[in-house]
Amino acid sequence: MPGISTSHHRVYWSDQAEQVRSVPVDAIESARREWVPLEKIPELIARGEVRSANAVAALLMLRHLRLG
Fold this sequence. Notes:
By secondary structure, the protein is mainly alpha-helical. It is 31% helix and 0% strand. The protein is globular.
């Protein structure tokens, strides 16, 4: 949001993760959370399941960096 906001966004990547609980502790920031393979990111975006432009940019960059 150039000219409107100075917020910063950080994306963290790990190739090892373990799900430790089924319900998120902080459900305010998102309507849904789930584990998905990076290969499915473009499909989720195309179906409109990722609504945040910042999240779309971060996920596409991560997919590109990890999968080429």
